[in-house]
Amino acid sequence: MLARVANNLFWMGRYIERSEHIARYINVNYFSSLDAPNELSQSRQFVLRSMLFMVGDPEHDETKVLDEEKVLYKIGLDNDYPFSIINNVKYARENANSARDLISTELYEAINKFYHFVLKYDAEAYVKNGLHDFTVNITEMSAILRGKMRGTLLHNEIYAIIMMGVNIERATQIIRMINAKYNDALKSQGSYGDKFSNSFEWTTLLKCAESYDMMRRFYKKTPNSISTLEFLILNPNCPRSIMNSLNQVYKHIKVLDPSKKYNKNSTAFLVGKVRAEYEYKYIKEIEEDIQSFIKDILDNLSEISQKMESEFFNY
Amino acid sequence: MSKINNQIFSSYDRNPILYDELYDTEGKVKEMYSKLFNLYGEHSKKDYVKLNEKAKASFFNQGITFQVYDKEETKEKIFPFDLFPRIIDPQEWDIIERGAIQRSKALNLFLWDIYHGKKIIKQGIVPMELISSSANYLHQMNGIDPPGGIYNHISGTDVIKHNDGKYYVLEDNIRCPSGVSYVICNRTALKRALFGVFNHYQTHTVTNYAENLLDLLETVKPKGVDVPNVVVITPGMFNSAFYEHSYLAKTMGVELVEGRDLFVENDFVYMKTIRGPKKVDVIYRRIDDAFIDPLEFRPDSSLGVPGLFAAYKKGNVTLANAPGTGVADDKAVYTYMPEIIKYYLNEEPILNNVHTYHCSRPDELKYVLEHIHELVIKPVDEAGGYGISIGNRLTKEEIETVKKQVSENPRKYVAQPIMSLSVHPTYIDDSESFEQRHVDLRTFTVLGKDKEFVLKGGLTRVALQKGNLVVNSSQGGGSKDTWVLK
């Protein structure tokens, strides 16, 4: 397949995954805050700041009073904000357009419907009472797209490229969520006697990752910092975990690079190395220095992405 | 036979002067259409409006759109289509198909000749100035033998039915004519919206174009190539016909490339893939001659591939259609088609040509200048329907302007009698009813080495403006599903 189009498909996968995670994050944080058990988690300002932090645009002025409608609009439907959901969906569709001969008609039509849904969404209705409807539809349409990818595309190098994009982005977004919730948990400790490790924010985090029910099934206890981080980072069977995403990335890079022994400068080598590193970590060593962990994994994911760019997409 | 209360046709205003394909001269529904008429008549007007809206949404969801560039943002519009299909009976279709193949073959032989021995010119059948004065004649193509001997792999023959009930060719398009993807889209839309109607008619499929196109493109692979790598080259996704480019690549199962995806090394063409360079053998191009190679044609072109023409000259790559076919895709050369067919094929033309006056001939120029109000005046080398003047629609001042233009540059113009294009019932949104609208038919022919294929259907194009004779989509036309009966 063409190098240029491969690049577009990689980013199509990333933008679709990114749209969904942003939508889920703002949905869960907003609605769970309405009757949160602690004072700070219930605070609207706290929630709005958390949303901006997660999308990479933290508000540093502690005294500023954020306008709810402006924040929601910015993250959801602001055409001038590069990280908004609407722009992520536009980029995904634009990338799909350049490759519509390679992907299935069913996948393209689903992306096109997704695009037109977002494009036509009434901004006024969205900020006033449409947040749930908008974000749930984004989540559901993203799930349909993944279903079309898995169920209608040949599982060849084209599929591998798209899924590399999806899984690298997934790991990146989960880390961003963990980072945002870690900060929220630090800030909210002390309210109503909560401690950091038992913060309500860990429950919120699991719901943001659609992993709360399965986590309860796995641990049978109320989430705490250790169990939540272990589940979302190290559990290879949690579909939203970092470990699962890295395993998927490794599986797909082998489709692109079927060598038995990898060149040390190849993407496949780097992916294998990073994956192996996390496979043998345990949660205590991560929790001791969570900030370093977050920085390291983000750097690793970025490095993988750049390596792919130079190995497969550049001419 | 006909129901008394056929709701959606009840307000159909029939002009008896026009040749209506649904009604005969006595005002009865033609037998071929009677079942269809009754089936549509079972729908209330309200139902039909709803069906029409759903069909439009289907087109939109499938991304079957073209882009209109506004001041602030790019808007997407669907290609207008009508849900009432046109029917062509097998006997009529046989004439159309044989005629289209005949013309395509004759044009191919003509192209070979004018880029080699030029016998038809030396023997005085076609005047030299018609060729040498054409901006589309490429001297670089002289002496080149295209792989398989095919120049116009893809042809679009535009056919109308006149009020005498006979088919006439308006134009032969052999510079990669567009529109075939809409043939399939119209069929899909109709199947989704009104699937029941297909139970009553045995109609030929239109979904086999891509497989036949690929088969025939593979027959013109360069020498020494076993399994050719075929690609479609597009100017890019902002081109108005990009939907069709991607549709053709997808349905053929071949790569859709842009100029920047290809490069030439040692006179072979390669594409840049994630696994390194891969040789390209056949290129189905949707890029104009002038842009295909900046080293040979327009030096500022960033759409083409430097060195592509050199590779083509060596016979290392096939270009479909060949460069320089525009010289025969020319309204002045069109007027010589009957002679061209006789000369190369030793056959009588199967499809009628519209009688054409050559303004480059003094006696015919005189006739044209005296009869502009009865004629259509056309510039010979404009694509897309631009620059056409229809005599009976011109004011006195406009007639004088046209006279002046033609007198100053007669070579540039041809004139033809105003044909009374047949009309077909077409649903008009504004009036929420069916109205008579002029139609033509674009056929799609593919020539390969020793093989040819004509899609059994083609694109019925509709002039959506009342009374308008220009059916081209860039002038606001629409289209209909076209059923060729078995």
TrEMBL record, chain A:
Organism: Aggregatimonas sangjinii
Matches recorded under PANTHER family: BLR5612 PROTEIN, SLL1039 PROTEIN
InterPro entries in UniProt: ATP-dep_Glu-Cys_Ligase-2 (IPR051680), DUF403 (IPR007296)
The protein, known as: Alpha-E domain-containing protein
Domain called DUF403: residue spans: 1-313
UniProtKB/TrEMBL annotation, chain B:
Source organism (scientific name): Aggregatimonas sangjinii
PANTHER family the record matches: BLR5612 PROTEIN, SLL1039 PROTEIN
Family matches, as Pfam families: CP_ATPgrasp_2 (PF14403)
Name of the protein: Circularly permuted type 2 ATP-grasp protein
Ranges for domain Circularly permuted ATP-grasp type: 85-463
Superkingdom in the source lineage: Bacteria
Species lineage: Bacteria, Pseudomonadati, Bacteroidota, Flavobacteriia, Flavobacteriales
